[in-house]
Amino acid sequence: PAFVYKILGTAPPSPIPHDLPLSALGAEDGFIHLSNAQQVPITADLFFASSARLWLLKISSEKAQ
């Protein structure tokens, strides 16, 4: 895909840093968890169901590598 998405349960820092900080899960796993467009609703339901508001960062796949 041309883009991947990072779902956040809290507002991202402003301005958004070039290098995204790892979440607790990402730090444990050693990488940033990203979703493709079709996965976003599923990932949001699985991991962010209790969040009242979500933020979605759209990231170029080329830059994510």
Question: Could you explain how this protein is built, in words?
Answer:
- With 65 residues, the chain is of the alpha+beta class.
- It has one domain (3-64).
- 28% of the residues lie in helices and 18% in strands.
- It contains 3 helices and 2 strands; from the N terminus they run βααβα.
- The chain has helices at residues 24-29, 40-47, 61-64; strands spanning 3-8, 55-60.
- Strands 1-2 form a two-stranded antiparallel ribbon.
- The protein is globular and about 30 Å long.
- 5% of the residues are buried.
- The model has no long low-confidence stretch (mean pLDDT 91).
Summarize the topology.
Layout: E1 3-8, H1 24-29, H2 40-47, E2 55-60, H3 61-64
List keywords for this structure.
65 residues, single chain, two-stranded antiparallel ribbon, alpha+beta, 2 strands, 3 helices
Content-based structural category = alpha+beta
Instruction: Pick out the low-confidence regions.
Output: none
Mean pLDDT: 91
Q: List the strand order in the largest sheet.
A: 1-2
- Secondary-structure element order, as H and E? EHHEH
**DSSP strand content:** 15-25%
Number of strands: 2
Query: For the terminal residues, how far apart are their CA atoms?
Result: 12 Å
* Biggest sheet features: 2 strands, antiparallel
Q: What percent of residues adopt helix (DSSP H or I)?
A: 25-40%
How would you sum up the global shape? globular
